[in-house]
UniProtKB/TrEMBL annotation:
GO molecular function: aminoacyl-tRNA deacylase activity
UniProt record similarity statement: Belongs to the PRORSD1 family.
Residue intervals of the YbaK/aminoacyl-tRNA synthetase-associated domain: 42-167
CDD domains: PrdX_deacylase
Gene3D superfamilies linked: YbaK/aminoacyl-tRNA synthetase-associated domain
InterPro entries: ProX/PRXD1, YbaK/aa-tRNA-synt-asso_dom_sf, YbaK/aa-tRNA-synth-assoc-dom
UniProt xrefs under PANTHER family: PROLYL-TRNA SYNTHETASE ASSOCIATED DOMAIN-CONTAINING PROTEIN 1-RELATED, YBAK DOMAIN-CONTAINING PROTEIN
One Pfam family linked to the record: tRNA_edit
Organism domain of life: Bacteria
Protein name, UniProt field: Prolyl-tRNA synthetase associated domain-containing protein
Length: 182
């Protein structure tokens, strides 16, 4: 691999250097649950296209995570789906019985999940202590043995066993999963 991603290194476990508290809180949670994970540190990833090189290093497909809400901003959803799959608002809106879903404003993302655009992650649900965000997972995203996501910062990517996400991490964050077909 050449270009900006040629010096990326696959690592196991938490970083040894100093990181922002919200990222370190993710590693603290995973370690406290005995969840094994691999990590790649990289430049900020703003798009799924940027993540393709990371996919190859982690030998997974980074999941697309979308923070959505209804028109009134009274219902919030975090949707995890395969990174290569196209998102169709109409299909999800119909599945949820919501007349119209859209991307939630960045201010609500920060308020509810302590996340910023580009770093949306299922792991941000650890910050939703009031349970205001419903977690949705496309059935296809749950099929592989591993999922890929950011540790609440888009300068690292993690490889976590799907079973650990569903059986350990989500329960520890007091969130359930609702599977959807998109």
């Amino acid at each position: 691999m050449t270009g900006p991603y040629e010096n990326l290194v696959l690592r196991h476990g938490r970083p040894e250097d100093s990181r922002l508290p919200k990222e370190m809180a993710v590693y603290d949670l995973l370690d406290s649950l005995g969840v094994s994970y691999d990590r790649v540190d990289h430049e900020p990833m703003a798009t799924m296209e940027d993540c393709r090189a990371i996919d190859q290093i982690l030998d997974i497909e980074i999941c697309k995570n979308l923070f959505l809400c209804n028109r009134q901003e009274t219902q919030f959803y975090l949707l995890m789906m395969p990174g290569s799959k196209l998102f169709r608002t109409k299909v999800l809106s119909a599945a949820l019985g919501s007349s119209r879903l859209s991307f939630a404003p960045p201010s609500r993302m920060e308020e509810l999940l302590n996340l910023t655009p580009g770093s949306v992650s299922v792991l941000g649900l650890m910050n939703d202590t009031q349970g205001r965000v419903k977690f949705l997972m496309d059935v296809e995203a749950a099929k592989p043995d591993y999922i890929g996501c950011h540790p609440c910062m888009n300068t690292s990517s993690l490889k976590i066993a799907t079973a650990d996400l569903l059986e350990k991490i989500l329960p520890a964050m007091h969130h359930d999963v609702t599977f959807v077909e998109l």
